[in-house]
Amino acid sequence: MKFSLVLATLGRVGEVEQFLASLALQTYQAFELIVVDQNPDDRLLPLIESYRAQFPILHLRSEKGLSRARNVGLKHLSGDIVAFPDDDCAYLPTVLEQVAAFFSTHSQWNGLTGRSINQAGENSGGRWVSHPEPVNRFNVWQRGISYTIFLRRSVVTSVGLFDEQLGVGAGTPWGAAEETDYLLRALDAGIYYNPEIRIIHPVLVTPATPEPSPDAPVQPPKKQFLKTYAYALGMGYVLRKHNTVWWFVLYNWGRPSLGLLLSLVRGQFDQVRSYWATLRGRVRGWMQWA
Asked: How many CB atoms lie within 10 A of CB 171?
């Protein structure tokens, strides 16, 4: 059983190096890495060349856009299992071995998702339950994120390409949820969530320049809220695209509404702005899907 790992990347080198290093340590070595490079220069070439002797690497180019890059990679698959690692994630040494064992012994399942952890081993990137279970139309939002998804190639062939209107760099308002859209389109094939499949994200690298002052924000608040809004727009878009039942749409509007009111009562005004960005994005994304 061979893996095809489709890695879209832009603007990162140190993080990509750590991912490649994590691949070199895998206990299961039947894989190929498809690097879809969106950089305007050759910054990754020395790094890629340094690892070619350790495992197969196909280096491709694409225009900007996460979904566009992944679609370029999907046209060059040779493996049996397809995954979509981020350029700032890392695989624990036994991840591919665990996934291969699952697919070898569970022919009834054609997709597997895991959970995201940070470098301290704590959950990251969402709310992850501690028990395994099938993925359905309602829990899919908390049971899979792009870099924790593994699909049989037959599923990828059936589902087709990512929606290029969705995701980072798409040039549209819909800044996320491309992987959830993809999973929703694949659900009939049978997708299973197992929290024992753990992917490290984000991988932190030592900065080349001195650390900023502890008092300086990592990201300006305005930019944070814009990102929250873009992600929420993507979710609203996908909820509408898949004709999600009305009560689940209202539930996903109600959660940030309640959070907004509670934060307002507590005087947590940054939280108020965050919840408002989430609510406004989910509603607008749903209303403007067409």
From this structure: 11
